[in-house]
């Protein structure tokens, strides 16, 4: 087929295993620590909060391939594979010799990649006798996916949504309600953690860190309730590798292999999801692909953070995780990419950054929306503000190709659409948005005293 | 593949022709009339407002297959085929022996089937030297699609959006603005038609009829500007037959043939799009499929309207069309399915109703949302309020199958998703919505004096 634009796998070719990069890493990630004892956490300890199977997956550094349960495969087959698309119109607009492909996770149920991990997490909870599941959500993509997945497997869902994004994007709360979930703005007065945060700062806009604290607390004190996380942790990223494993087969259909793989970066699951399956060929087969994680300039943990043991949440309820971090007390600016407003990077990615297997790049807010609008007008899909960061990084690389006269193949993950984020686009078009940055002093202040990793 | 859920055509199998049912109809639709002379309109007369090629297609009762231009095919291939999905989870929830399939047009760029006609209409305009295009939009699905298609082919777009839906669903105006279109709420003071309407009723909420009047007026007085319509007319329905032609091949992949085909009904293009390719086998090959058009009980032109020559718009600017109508002055209740708030049915469908080749069914607003929420919770896609009507009709048929112990195969068109319509779902969940109906007297009052067809 001349100029084929779209590559889709036959149902029988959808991957039936997730890829666990921990098995292939020469330097394994440092273990999460019990904050009290500073000893490595066991799977059993983790399973007080998470599903037991997720806790096992979290610490698995041995098994390269993890079976996807048939009940999950059945749900995956319902919407997967997602299309791999060649962005001809964007290439043309950029006048670049680069070949640009994107994996379109925006056509998933609920409009983002999040469903890929929500389904297995709820499935394992159900299998293990859990009745209720709780979580945090930033922009609402994860909360929406979890609300639906909970309904699929017959669980009740309670979601803590970051207060500022709840106000910026009210439609996502409505979506969660449509699926029958209970939604609370965080920080709230419904938990001890929330009360403590509001006591110190009654106008706290919330962050993923505050919402995680509240959800973890709810899971801890509620019988039959487990906590499900939408990113950061290794088992979440594991589930997302279905994206890259599909993309690998689809790039083969297109007769190409990526020189550069790009994704936006909040906690790391959508990045790892598309990147790790390709990175295994860098590790094992001498490939030389470049991996770029696009983070907001206002929340630059990859490019300017420090490597420390830090809490995953604001209140300090989670295990200590070895991560590139801006400090768990860091309050990110109110950028519209709510899913990227998180202080730390997952443990796997943090180790890979140390080992120079990948690198971050930081994108100012205005550049991200500018990229998103160009993408919309050329490719017809309005991207989520988070995904706009990946597009901006892609455009930078494509322009570099034009300047250097190089024909590189670039693959990026379109993690979600932005139809629920239209107020953000409105504000950008009206000239009401701005760039944010943070000072070195603020980073030092927020990270001093953290436990050395 | 056991229990295959999703059927997608290889790119090489995407249809390259549209199907023109007018060529196969035993009783051709009556011609549109010039309102002054009451003489049949010629293609040349129509092309004062519409693209010349669209005007030719409108009156073509001879050619069964119309070539899709290669430039349009190239854009179609970018997102088509859309998936045909077996709704196992919905079947299970209904405990029905029926097999339910839906064609998922919600994954298209801009989230609905509308792009299928927006692309060729803008392409023809561009080919014919037009620089500007204008249109009306109800819920905003058509306006969004046209704004993008205009951008694709380098035209400027001006959209009149029904005022009440603009208020109910502000995000769709934002989408159109993101694509660079000028958006005006209708009725407005920017046209003579709008001024006249507002003079009589300053609080007029707008309707597709008022917005069409304004757009047609703008096209008439602006050099280089053509008008593009999103439904009702025969050439629009022609473009939408890509849906049914794909579905025919996909049902074959599934090893089934539909006993019933269902779509929601506003002007008729999404209905005709999925139904006509199957209806040709009723006409030509002795098939016996039942075709059901699901309209809102508050706007029941198919089930309770009269067959007359009527204007397509409120101000009386369009040709006289032979249609089942509630009268062009009819003000539909403010239901949330904005795309179904239209007084008349297209000329082809009106003839087919007369010839008993299909029938309408009317769905109260509350039943439509109830169906939509069941569909969301089972299939993971929040449907547009318009599409909820098709789902409600499907559920009625599936329940009938259960009661009668019959295993029928039902195919419906999921014309779009409802992510932009969350305020409507909010109001439904909060119990703030109601059913609307109209009295026989109101219908008689609105249709008396119309020209007999």
Automatic annotation (TrEMBL), chains A, B:
Q: Which residues form the Tryptophan synthase beta chain-like PALP domain?
A: 79-416
Quote the EC number: 4.2.1.20
This protein's pathway reads: Amino-acid biosynthesis; L-tryptophan biosynthesis; L-tryptophan from chorismate: step 5/5
- Entry annotated with the keyword Hydrolase: no
Keywords for the protein's UniProt record, in alphabetical order? Amino-acid biosynthesis, Aromatic amino acid biosynthesis, Lyase, Pyridoxal phosphate, Tryptophan biosynthesis
Q: Which cofactor does it need?
A: pyridoxal 5'-phosphate
Enzyme category, top tier: lyase
Q: Cite the Pfam families for this sequence.
A: PALP
Transmembrane region positions?
none
* Catalyzed chemical reaction(s): (1S,2R)-1-C-(indol-3-yl)glycerol 3-phosphate + L-serine = D-glyceraldehyde 3-phosphate + L-tryptophan + H2O
NCBIfam families the record matches: PRK12391.1, trpB_rel
Function description: The beta subunit is responsible for the synthesis of L-tryptophan from indole and L-serine.
**Can you state the subunit structure given in the record?**
Tetramer of two alpha and two beta chains.
Similarity remark: Belongs to the TrpB family.
UniProt name for this protein: tryptophan synthase
Provenance organism: Xylanibacter muris
